[in-house]
Amino acid sequence: MTDEEAAFERGRVIGQLTARLDGHDKHFEVINGSLEEIARALTAATVAIQTISVQLETKDKMMLAVSTALKESEVARVAEAENRWRRVAKVFAVVTMIATLLSIISTILAIAR
User: Fold this and answer.
1) Cα 32–chain centre separation
2) For every one of its 113 residues, what pLDDT tens digit does the chain have, with 9 covering 90 and above?
3) Dist. CA 24–CA 17, nearest whole Å
4) Which residues lie below 8 Å from residue 38, measured CB to CB, with a gap of 6+?
């Protein structure tokens, strides 16, 4: 192989390497662009997840407050119902005692006559 042929071969190999490297550079640019898009999407997804997490936490607190209020309302309703029945029972007891006393008095008066 002559010097010219060797120089030609070196030039050809360098040309092939340059073409391959140019193809790799373009490929890396595409990959970097894709990675930037992925990073933006990941950031958006992270923000969305944080927003959902805050919303769920707020909803849980609201549901706890509502359930506590409902429980307190039920306890108050039961207490009121018990108080109402206590009043009825007291009135019934008083009426029964009065009826019993009247019965005793009428029996005594009937015997005394």
Assistant:
1) 37
2) 788 888 888 888 888 888 777 777 777 787 777 888 899 999 999 999 999 999 999 999 999 999 999 999 999 988 888 877 787 788 888 999 999 999 999 999 888 87
3) 10
4) none
For residue 4 the two structure tokens come to 């010219």
**Residue 10: what are its φ and ψ, rounded to 5°?**
-60, -40
Q: Which amino acid is at 95?
A: V
Tokens describing residue 51: 């927003």
Dihedral pair phi/psi, residue 80, rounded to 5° = -65, -40
**Would you call 113 helix, strand, or coil by DSSP?**
coil
Helix-then-strand count for the chain, H and E: 1, 0
| Amino acid identity at 36 | E
Site of tokens 């040309």: 15
Question: Strand locations in the chain, DSSP E?
Answer: none
